[in-house]
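A reminder from the course coordinator: this example appears on the midterm review sheet, so study it carefully.

Given structure:
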């Protein structure tokens, strides 16, 4: 059961809280998700965004609990992706007097999904305002946050930014506001959302932050998750850090293994990096701690791997050889990371094999394709079981990887 929530008198949340979604086009929505829509009741009635198509009835119910659907004047569409526009056809049908308001690119994108031939449209350019009576909405285009047609809407009279995908997180909860939920958890999920959805467009996110900086904002109402009202500066600062691609002092060891040989290598690389971190901590106890994580690719979701990889300065990527190639989970990691275009990292390739080349070589070849810098010219390999010599090489590489991550972190602090 979903309830509407008042943001301001006459401005209400009417979206859908989806507790059950676990796969959002491959994003692991372990905490569920929300599709936020907002109803503004002024002299004119406007609905900002809709919800995924399967929940159109719930959206209609929520809107109808506040206003007669025939009285809705505007259906404002900030983004044509179907988690927000999926119920637009149902709302156009249910609200016969409504005009769809969006930018020209959004109209084209909607026409690619739906038969819009009978829809009434009002096209706004970036910076144009839509008067609702005492209040108004100014549309600002934010291309590639997260699609080319994406926009945000600012209501100056109430100091509300309806930010669509920007500043969202995938969290299903009965609470709507940032001071009603655990802030570190919101920021953790916000970072995961950023890393998995918006990271390839970091430069555009920075432009969005610049565009909204002069605005007086008391509420940031995104299209996913928690609404910001008490922690807006912290959220903007976090977004700026993520979009600026700052390195954290962090090393990831990501691997898949068949008969635990590659796992033994991964553990030794991890141990070498941990040792290096301990040395750093002994030398300078007040410095930030080096974060070293050992992550089994088949037991960790791609969503989590990406969230952790966003700000890591160094990664070890390992795979046993399977069919003279990578194990499938590691192939997925490489393909996913390639699309996300994270900032350059120092990368080590490693892995075990039985009788021919395969996994480790494929990773070494992928490192420049990921636009990472290889730690070594050739991968560290072990035939069947790693020998003491192989493991010594792994430990040394782990230390060097940690050193590279630490140096990247320090360089960013200057
Ligand atoms: Fe939440 Fe890009 O859609």
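Designed residues:
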């Amino acid at each position: 059961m979903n309830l509407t929530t008042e943001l301001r008198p006459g401005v209400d949340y009417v979206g859908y809280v989806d507790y059950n979604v676990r796969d959002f086009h491959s994003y692991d929505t372990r905490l569920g998700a929300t599709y936020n829509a907002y109803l503004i009741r002024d002299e004119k009635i406007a609905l900002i965004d809709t919800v995924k198509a399967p929940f159109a009835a719930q959206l209609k119910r929520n809107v109808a609990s506040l206003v007669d659907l025939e009285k809705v004047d505007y259906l404002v569409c900030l983004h044509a992706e179907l988690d927000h526009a999926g119920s637009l056809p149902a709302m156009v049908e249910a609200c016969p007097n409504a005009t769809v308001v969006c930018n020209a690119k959004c109209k084209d994108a909607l026409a690619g999904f739906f038969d819009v031939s009978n829809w009434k449209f009002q096209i706004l350019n970036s910076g144009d305002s839509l008067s609702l009576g005492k209040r108004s909405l100014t549309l600002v285009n934010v291309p590639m946050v997260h699609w080319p047609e994406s926009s945000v809407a600012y209501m100056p009279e109430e100091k509300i930014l309806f930010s669509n995908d920007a500043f969202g997180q995938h969290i299903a909860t009965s609470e709507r506001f940032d001071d009603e939920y655990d802030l570190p958890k919101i920021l953790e999920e916000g970072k995961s959302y950023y890393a998995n959805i918006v990271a390839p467009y970091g430069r555009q996110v920075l432009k969005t932050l610049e565009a909204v900086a002069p605005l007086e904002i008391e509420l940031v109402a995104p299209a996913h998750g928690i609404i910001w009202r008490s922690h807006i500066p912290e959220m903007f600062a976090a977004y700026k850090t993520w979009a600026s691609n700052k390195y954290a002092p962090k090393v990831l060891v990501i691997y898949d293994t068949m008969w635990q040989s590659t796992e033994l290598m991964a553990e030794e690389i991890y141990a070498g990096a941990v040792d290096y971190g301990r040395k750093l901590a002994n030398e300078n106890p007040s410095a930030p701690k080096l974060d070293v994580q050992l992550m089994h690719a088949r037991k960790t979701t791609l969503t989590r791997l990406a969230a952790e990889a966003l700000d890591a300065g160094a990664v070890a990527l390992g795979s046993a050889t399977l069919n003279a190639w990578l194990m499938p989970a590691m192939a997925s990691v490489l393909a996913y990371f390639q699309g996300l275009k994270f900032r350059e990292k120092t990368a080590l390739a490693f892995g075990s094999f039985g009788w021919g080349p395969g996994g480790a070589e494929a990773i070494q070849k992928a490192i420049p394709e990921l636009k990472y810098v290889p730690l070594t010219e050739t991968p560290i390999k072990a035939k069947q079981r790693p020998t003491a010599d192989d493991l010594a090489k792994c430990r040394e590489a782990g230390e060097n990887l940690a050193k590279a991550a630490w140096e990247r972190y320090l360089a960013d602090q200057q």
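The CA atoms of residues 268 and 395 lie 5 Å apart. The pocket of MU-OXO-diiron is lined by residues 79, 81, 83-84, 146-147, 165, 223-224 (CB under 6 Å).
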